[in-house]
Amino acid sequence: MSTPTSTATESGAPAGAPTGSLFTRLYTGTGAFGIVANRRKLYVLTAVIVAICLASIIFRGFSFGIDFTGGTKLSMPAGNHDQDRVAAVVEESIGEEPQTVQVVGAGDARIVEVETRFLTSDEIRAAKNAMFEEFQPVTADGAASVEAIGDSARSESWGGQVTQNALIALGVFLVIVFGYIAFRFEWQMATAAIVALLFDVVTTAGIYSIIGFEVTPATVIGLLTILGFSLYDTVIVFDKVEENTRGLRHTASRTFAEEANLGVNQTLMRSIHTTIIGVLPLLALVVIAVWILGVGTLLDLAIVQMVGIITGTFSSVFLATPLLVSLKNRDPDIRRQTAKVLARREKAEAIA
Predict the structure, then answer these.
(1) Does the pTM of the predicted model rise above 0.90?
(2) Domains annotated on the chain, with CATH
(3) Residue 301 belongs to what H/E stretch?
(4) Contacts 24+ apart (CB under 8 A), 116-121
(5) Spans of the chain below 50 pLDDT
């Protein structure tokens, strides 16, 4: 009497999975990784990640930029001025440490930007005079003048308007996405995709809160752009799952969970490649933004998109499809088909 070499189960554990190296299993895509089978563990992991991120958002909050908090920005040609000295001069003149001091731009276009709370006209005049006396900045025509120091103010309501419009755009986007996926595939896939997108938003925001990255309007815009990447990856996986499960109710060879797990494995290497290809240009953008151009907006966009791409890949592979299986297993037809597959296997093992 022989014993079957492997037995697939209702949970979606891989059947007959290859036992080669990690890369062999990744490239073969024959169900070597029991992602669906371990969905309960993945739910716990996901819940822990979300809980940590929400706790940080609630108790630690965000480091908002001047566009959200409101304030005054002073700027002058960078020259060879030390940022710490610039901060000290401004602090002495207004009696308060500036929020940020940074050098942006490249070459002769480099400037020092100082962000502070809202300053009165007298405080702005005092700060500019102190900076001029200490650093003697020159205008475009080469003459040393206090006019070389610029100032601008930003109302905190502007950042609030950006956030409000972004939230409206996010809501409309999620409604459209749900409708499209429900029409193209089915409502269970649409629900799983929306949950994955919400996970991306919460996790990316939580990482910003935990690490303390500054939140700017560019960050909010970048957060919306990463949802498209995450959705693309999820739809690719779902398309493969649909292909594998087409006509499943009329067969008794594999359960829905097993076919879904196979679909994730078949697209896993593609997801990894897409993530790497997406992250590499963003790393290059960070290098250009920080070391060459010194443009803060580019850095903000690059960081939020890098974080979002990684979380989006995680949610597409380890959350969306396992959640889809949990939802589909509530379908009476799927439950009957699963029972038929398991009964057939038990009968085959008994005969063997």
Answers:
(1) no
(2) 22-63+157-351 (1.20.1640.10), 71-154 (3.30.70.3170)
(3) helix 296-315
(4) 116/71, 116/72, 116/73, 116/74, 116/90, 117/70, 117/71, 117/72, 118/70, 118/71, 118/72, 118/153, 119/72, 119/94, 119/153
(5) 1-8, 16-17
